[in-house]
Specification:
single chain, 436 residues, mainly beta, Cathepsin D, subunit A, domain 1, 2 domains, 6-stranded antiparallel sheet, 25 strands, globular, binds 2-acetamido-2-deoxy-beta-D-glucopyranose
């Protein structure tokens, strides 16, 4: 609907050199500029899409180690969608370049961490100590060379659901550079213990981009890196923007995967039309928005079925969309052949050549559909028996009627949009990606 409107408006300008330009923001009180070039950095594709954390792999592992198979689900099967950035941890020696740590970007958490070269690796199931190489991280942070001032009474203990990976470390003060912006006194964690289920061989860190409320140090909440950038005036606009590319089958590890801009918008070539703005519901501490869900067998199947109004977290590190159970069932039944729930994988799966339905989130009154190319995610790893399995982009997020129900708008949807996370105005702004 929106795209058609834009096309017809642009058409009015035919004959002139330039058509009438739409406002950059549909709300006249919002104005955000493009971030300076040096603060727009390239996102990097997941280093090892061939690793999926799924029951299948668990089962294989359990068989190898002769341990019982737990009834775990497969929330990270979409691993190939998660982008990384190169983060710089500063050096103790003035003038020396810092250490580059390949780090996942996460709008759904707020702690930033890196693995110390002095960490202990353990097996995830048995917790028995292993060689560091067993955990298979990328380049570690070396605390003998880099700045890390231990806050001795504050620790970070993370556990990842559902795989049960455990990370433990100390909070401390380090100098962190993202793009061209440095926070000299960033509060971060150095991981000294990891019970980790096979790293990807390249990453050894994470950049948490959420609000202070989501920080999880033992000594209490603190200001994460982006908040410090804002408070210290390192960025004047309290906004960062993400344009995350859809992954291609067979991409190279760490290939370009889109753009992140700190303190403004990404390069204008990434989007077209106007940004639609909606308030962030900060109750949960997440970047959550209230929206509608509509769907039909095809985009022409009007009127569309109304899937409800609910609250979803926009998270750069959740792959699929999670919607209320009735909508998940109905949407998956509209694939042809239908996507069926697979209890082993805990996802809806369909043949990779299935016809996909039309599904859109209605955000700020604008219908923002899934790109059909993102409706089925191919299993990027050729596990025997799963070579031709594709995952539906819509998973079962549970009951929408319970108190504080929260759902997820995943990376699959985000591939077709540019999203500005505007802490200053407490809003998210969405524009269509320019075709790519
Ligand atoms: C990360 O940064 C380092 C230092 O600038 C560079 O050598 C390395 O190639 C970068 N990695 C990627 C994947 O861009
Ligand atoms: C930080 O200090 C605590 C308390 O002395 C210690 O247990 C911990 O290992 C230290 N962490 C690092 C990364 O040096
Ligand atoms: C941690 O130590 C700092 C500095 O010594 C102190 O100000 C703070 O109250 C301590 N916090 C806790 C939770 O013990
Ligand atoms: C899940 O999908 C795989 C691959 O198609 C299949 O082998 C397995 O039996 C399915 N499990 C269930 C419970 O349907
Ligand atoms: C989809 O692929 C299957 C084999 O995986 C094939 O039997 C079927 O004919 C294909 N359907 C279409 C519509 O191409």
């Amino acid at each position: 609907m929106f795209a058609l409107l834009f096309a017809s408006l642009a058409g009015i300008g035919l004959g002139g050199a330039v058509g009438p330009s739409l406002p950059l923001f549909t709300r006249s009180d919002i104005s955000i500029r493009e971030a300076p070039a040096e603060n727009r950095l390239q996102l990097l594709r997941n280093p090892n899409p061939r690793l999926i954390k799924a029951n299948t792999r668990k089962a294989l592992r359990a068989r190898r180690h002769n341990t019982p198979v737990a009834t775990e689900t497969a929330n990270t099967v979409f691993s190939g969608v998660y982008p990384c950035v190169n983060l710089t941890w500063g050096s103790k020696t003035p003038g020396e370049p810092g250490q580059q740590i390949i780090s996942y970007i996460d709008t759904g958490s707020s702690d930033t961490w890196a693995v110390s070269s002095q960490f202990t690796c353990a097996d995830i199931a048995t917790k028995t100590p292993q060689l560091q190489s067993y955990c298979n991280f990328g380049n570690y942070f070396d605390p003998t060379v880099g700045i890390f001032d231990n806050i001795t009474n504050s620790t970070l203990n993370l556990e990842y659901f559902p795989e049960g990976d455990v990370l433990q470390g100390s909070m401390g003060i380090a100098s962190i550079t993202v793009a061209d912006l440095t926070v000299l006194d960033a509060e971060v964690a150095l991981i000294t213990y990891a019970a980790w289920d096979n790293g990807d061989g390249a990453s050894a860190g994470l950049l948490g981009l959420g609000y202070p409320a989501l920080t999880s140090a033992s000594a209490g909440h603190y200001d994460p890196i982006f908040t410090k950038m804002v408070k210290q005036g390192i960025v004047t606009d309290a906004v960062f923007t993400l344009a995350v590319d859809r992954e291609e089958i067979g991409y190279s590890p760490l290939a370009p995967a889109g753009q992140m801009a700190i303190g403004g918008l990404v390069d204008a070539s990434y989007y077209e039309g106007s940004f639609t703005s909606v308030p962030i519901d900060t109750t949960s501490g997440f970047y959550a928005i209230t929206h509608l869900l509509v769907y039909g067998a095809t985009s022409r199947a009007r009127p569309l079925t109304f899937g409800g109004t609910f609250l979803s977290i926009v998270d750069s590190s959740t792959g699929p969309n999670f919607v209320p159970t009735p909508s998940a069932n109905a949407i998956n039944a509209l694939f042809d052949p239908p996507a069926v729930y697979n209890a082993t994988l805990d996802y809806y799966v369909a043949p990779c050549n299935a016809t996909v339905p039309y599904v859109a989130y209605v955000i700020g009154g604008v219908e923002m559909p899934m790109d059909p190319r993102d409706m089925l995610v191919r299993n990027l790893v050729a596990i025997e028996g799963y070579d031709d399995v594709c995952f539906s982009a819509f998973g079962d997020g549970g009951d929408a009627t319970v108190e504080d129900a929260l759902f997820w708008i995943g990376v699959v949807w985000q591939h077709a949009y540019v999203i500005a996370y505007d802490q200053g105005n407490s809003m998210l702004h969405f524009a269509n990606r320019a075709p790519y």
